[in-house]
Amino acid sequence: DIGLSELNEISMLGEGVSRALSFISSILVQKDSIILIDEIENGIHYSVIKDMINALIEAAKTNNNQIFTTTHSHDVICAINELYEKSKDISYIRLGRDKESQKPTAMQFNMDDFSFSVENGWEVR
């Protein structure tokens, strides 16, 4: 119940609400699974990103799920950094290419280094 006098379709509440509910419902119906979310910030207002990610983390813990998400969003990176203080279950992995071989690479950040970088405005994307 969101306080409206009549029922409405979820799509009437906007793309952001639809996406967030889709993420949460996927996590809640799957147990012991891996959930993949591409560009988690798309359609989500920046002011609720942190709360939404926190809700996803809590739902994932309930069902023993693991979430992998991609982002280019500074807002998401800052939210993840803030949430790390509450949940040490968060990791940050940066994908890129080796300068010489051009082969794809993945670098898992030490979260203390990640936090230091974000808090000092260093680029981590």
Describe this structure in words.
With 125 residues, the chain is an alpha+beta fold. The chain has one domain (11-119). It is built from four helices and four strands; from the N terminus they run αβαβαββα. The strands form two sheets. A two-stranded parallel ribbon has the order 1-2. A two-stranded antiparallel ribbon has the order 3-4. Strand 3 and strand 4 (104-108) form a beta hairpin. Helix 1 (15-29) packs parallel to helix 2, helix 2 crosses helix 3 (74-84) and helix 3 crosses helix 4 (111-119). The radius of gyration is 16 Å and the shape is globular. It starts with 14 loop residues before the first helix and ends in a 6-residue tail after the last helix.
Name the beta content range.
5-15%
Structural class: alpha+beta
What is the number of beta strands?
4
| Rg computed from alpha carbons, rounded to a whole number of angstroms | 16 Å
How far is the first residue's CA from the last residue's CA?
Answer: 38 Å
Total discrete domains: 1
Output the strand order for the largest sheet.
1-2
Q: Tell me, what's the shape?
A: globular
Count of individual helical segments: 4
Keywords: ATP-binding, Nucleotide-binding
Protein name: ATP-binding protein
Pfam families: AAA_15 (PF13175)
GO molecular function: ATP binding
Summarize the structure.
InterPro entries: AAA_GajA/Old/RecF-like (IPR041685), Bact_Antivir_Def_Nuclease (IPR051396), P-loop_NTPase (IPR027417). With 125 residues, the chain is α+β, with helices and mostly antiparallel strands. The chain is built from 4 helices and 4 strands.
